[in-house]
C-alpha cells in the first residue's frame, strides 16, 4: 500500500472518528440540556403554583377584610338606629340603647345638625371645643362613606358621620403592604424567570423582574415581550379587590433559552476551530515540506559538488601534465567512491536501512580523515579513543558517517572556522556513547528546543536540514538518541549520541 492510499485511509478514519466524537458529544449535551430544561420547567411550574396559592391567600385575606368592613358598616347603622331610639320617650329601652352607644370604643363618629355644626362625637383625635363645625380636612376624612341621616324633629335631620376604625385602618394598611410585598416577591424572587405584572388593561406595567431595565422603557419592546410571554405561558389572573385585577406574565428563564441553543453554538465553534486548525496545520505542513525539499536539493548539490569539483580539477590537471596520472587516478577513484556513498545515503532516506555489525572506530576514523583535508587549517580534530582498536555495533555505515560529518560541519560553522573539535568514545555495558564537542559560540536554551526541527537554522546561508536528518538517522533508524548534552554561550557545545550494542543479523 503506497503512502497516498494510507493517507486517504487515515483521513477517512479520522473524519469518521471526528464525526463520531462530535455526534456523541452533541447527543450527551442535548441529553443534559433536556434534563436541565425539564428541571427548569419544573421549577417554573412550582413557582407558578406558589404564585397562584399566594394569590388565593391574598384574595381570601381581602375578602376577609371586606367582611370586616361590612360588619363595621352595620355597626355604624346600628349606632344610628340607637340614636333614633334614644330620641323616643321609651324609658324601658333607654338604658339598653345607652349601653350600646357607650360600648362603641373603636368606630370614630361625629353627629351634626343639618348645618354642619358638631353636636356630639366619639373616638376622635381632636377636641370638639376647638373644632365646632365639620369642614375642611376633617370633613374629607368623614365623608369617605355617605353619612347616615336620622330625623331629630319634624323637618330637622341629624347626620351621623363615620370612618373606618383605627384598627380597621391599620388592617387595610397591612393588606396594602401585603399586596405590594406579593408583587415584589413575584417579580424579584422568581427563580430567574422573567416576569411582568400588568394592570387589568394588560398594557400598563406595574412591576417586572429579571429583565433589562433600559429595554423595559421601550413600549415596543414591552408589547413584543408580553406577546412572547403569552405565547409560552398563559398569563395568571390575580384579583386584588380595591386595587383591581392584575395579570402575571412569565416565560422560560434566559439561562434555559441560552442552553437550548448551546448545542448549535457548540457545533459552530467546533467547525470554526477545526477549519482554522486545518488551515494552520496545512500551511505549516506545506511550509515545512517546502523547506525540506529546498534543503534536500541544496544538500544533494553540496554533497555531490565536492567530489565533482575534485574530479574536474584532476582532469584539468591531467590535460596539462600527465606525469601525475597515478595520483590522479587514485584521487578520482576516491571521489567516485564518495559519489557512490552519497548515492547510497540518499537512497536510504525514506526507507528502513539495514543495520550491519560495523566497526564504529573505523567509521569515526574514516569520517575525520575525509573532513581534515577539507577543513580550515585552523580547525583541530582531537580523537579521545584508541584509533587502532575495534568496536563492532549494529549501524549503517553510510548514514552514521553522514551524522558525524553533519555534526562536525555545524561545529566548524559555530567556531567560524577556528577552534577544536573533540570526539570522545565510551564503551558501556549496553550502550556506546559518542560525544562531539566544539569550542564555538554555544547554543541558547531556546534554540536547543528548535535546532532539530526541519528548516530551522541560525546561519545566513544554511538550509536547516543537517541536524534534522541526523536525529532521524539516529533516533528512527538506529533506535538510539541524539541530543545536546550541554552548551555554554561563548564556550562551546557537546552533542551526544547513544547507540545500543545489540547484535543484529544482516538483512538479505
State the CATH topology of one domain: Heat Shock Protein 90
The main sheet orders its strands as: 10-12-13-15-14
Overall outline:
rod-shaped
Q: For the CA atoms, what is the radius of gyration?
A: 53 Å
Q: Could you name the CATH homologous superfamily of one domain? A: Histidine kinase-like ATPase, C-terminal domain
Briefly, what CATH class of one domain?
Answer: Alpha Beta
Topology pattern, helix = H, strand = E: HHEEHEEHEEHEEHHHEHEEHEEHHEE
Counting helices, strands and paired strands, the structural category is: alpha+beta
CATH-scheme architecture of one domain: 2-Layer Sandwich
N-to-C terminal Cα separation, in Å? 22 Å
Oligomeric state as shown: single chain
Largest sheet: 5 strands, mixed
Q: Count of DSSP helices? A: 12
- The percentage helix is 40-55%
**Which spans of ≥5 residues are poorly predicted at pLDDT below 50?**
504-508
Q: What is the typical, i.e. mean, pLDDT?
A: 76
Number of strands: 15
- Strand content of the residues, in percent? 15-25%
Describe the protein's architecture and organization.
The strands form four sheets. Strands 10-12-13-15-14 form a five-stranded mixed beta sheet. Strands 2-1-4-3 form a four-stranded antiparallel beta sheet, with helices on one face. It contains twelve helices and 15 strands. With 508 residues, the chain is of the alpha+beta class. Residues 504-508 have low confidence and may be disordered. Strand 14 (481-488) and strand 15 form a beta hairpin. Among the domains are: 108-163, no CATH class; 188-254, no CATH class; 263-325; 352-500, Heat Shock Protein 90, CATH 3.30.565. Helix 1 (3-86) packs antiparallel against helix 2 (91-103), helix 1 (3-86) packs antiparallel against helix 4 (166-188) and helix 7 packs antiparallel against helix 8 (325-348). The longest helix is centred in the N-terminal third of the chain and has 84 residues, at 3-86. The protein is rod-shaped.
